[in-house]
Design brief:
The two termini are 33 Å apart. It is built from 14 helices and 5 strands. It has 2 domains: 213 residues, HUPs (Rossmann fold), CATH 3.40.50; 72 residues, Tyrosyl-Transfer RNA Synthetase (Orthogonal Bundle), CATH 1.10.240.10. Helix 7 crosses helix 8. It is mostly helical and 322 residues long. Bound molecules: adenosine-5'-diphosphate (ADP) and tryptophan (TRP).
């Protein structure tokens, strides 16, 4: 049995790229009986950028509702909100006092953000230590993340190993599990789908708004009767991700035959999205209308996580003489 843990930033509503690239693979991983899965919403990390309380609450609810709607089972997964366990911020302080300044100053993600953001706060600088605390607090053995988080995990391992070296066995040094070939789902403009590019497809939107996003997918200007290349078309790329092999082959033939317009392809894509996500959309609406059910699921997760967090903190406090 491996304890697998990962965090999700609640930086906005979850789009098709998040669902196919992160949510569904994580849920699949949590269904493997060899794993004990911990999934949490990293709302303290979001405070480095989102300062508005109402917006943070909205993002938290929509993110949790999306995960539950996509099939996360809170009985199988320890699903919780980072800030519900303040043990995490206490451990962050202890770890801070063992983190060499240059380790954080040289982190790629901090350098990137500090060059590009107007609000460069100390929380942004300390982001990797809070992340180490998320991981070490729960004795996580495997931490699956995308490539961009690799350095943060190396920092976590370094902190765990050097603390153990100095004080004896205290932390589990986690394995880094980087998914190299995470598929990059294209957005409506052909770039990687991302909240920050405004090119998302939000499958949880009401039908009319969803239709507007799908109809807005950029294509070339080949006229209706012209022969089209499926392999260079964003609409086809998205259709292929959701369709069966025979549906994909059929659309590919239509593209190559001509007299099949991009409007037709977009309508087919919209119908497929509505069909594939029909139950998830209903569940999402249900959870958004019944936030108390979402909060109850998250509380259940926090109650399971708390005893583990308390035990780790007790070990650390004892070692440090507090
Ligand atoms: P965004 O770029 O919209 O802000 P995040 O950086 O918050 O998304 O990503 C959350 C998770 O979703 C990460 O695990 C990331 O790898 C995955 N993800 C985001 N966009 C895509 C995409 N276009 N294709 C595949 N996975 C994605
Ligand atoms: N920083 C991660 C991201 O941006 C989210 C995160 C916070 C995380 N704490 C974590 C991921 C702990 C894995 C483990 O995607």
């Amino acid at each position: 049995m491996a304890r697998v843990l990962t965090g999700i930033q609640s930086s906005g509503r979850q789009h098709l790229g998040n669902i196919l690239g992160a949510i569904l693979p994580a849920i699949q991983m949590s269904n493997d009986p060899k794993n004990e899965a911990f999934l949490f919403i990293a709302d303290l990390h979001s405070l480095t950028s989102v300062k508005d309380a109402g917006l943070r609450k909205e993002n938290l609810l929509a993110t949790a509702a999306a995960w539950l709607a996509c099939g996360l089972d809170p009985k199988k997964v320890v699903f919780y909100v980072q800030s519900d366990l303040p043990e995490c911020t206490e451990l962050t302080w202890y770890l801070n006092c063992f983190t060499p300044f240059p380790m954080l100053a040289n982190a790629h993600s901090f350098k990137d953000k500090s060059n590009n953001l107007s609000d460069v706060n100390a929380g942004l600088f300390d982001y990797p230590v809070l992340m180490a605390s998320d991981i070490l607090l729960y004795d996580a053995e495997v931490v699956p993340v995308g490539k961009d988080q690799k350095q943060h995990l190396e920092i976590t391992r370094d902190l765990a190993i050097s603390f153990n070296h100095r004080y004896g066995d205290t932390f589990v040094a986690p394995e880094v599990s980087i998914s190299e070939q995470v598929m990059a789902i294209p957005g409506t403009d052909g770039r990687k789908m991302s909240k920050s590019y405004g090119n998302v497809i939000d499958v949880f939107l009401p039908k009319k708004q969803l239709k507007k996003q799908v109809m807005g997918i950029q294509t070339d200007s080949t006229p209706l009767e012209g022969v089209k290349d499926p392999d260079s078309c964003n609409v086809f790329a998205l259709y292929e991700l959701l369709a069966t092999a025979s549906q994909t082959a059929e659309m590919s033939n239509r593209y190559r035959a001509g007299n099949y317009g991009y409007g037709h392809a977009k309508t087919a894509l919209l119908e497929l999205i509505l069909e594939e996500f029909s139950e998830a959309r209903d569940r999402f609406d249900h959870f958004m209308d019944h936030p108390e059910e979402v909060y109850a699921a998250l509380k259940q997760g926090a109650d399971k996580a708390r005893p583990i967090a308390k035990q780790t903190l007790l070990r650390v406090r004892t070692k440090l003489g507090f």
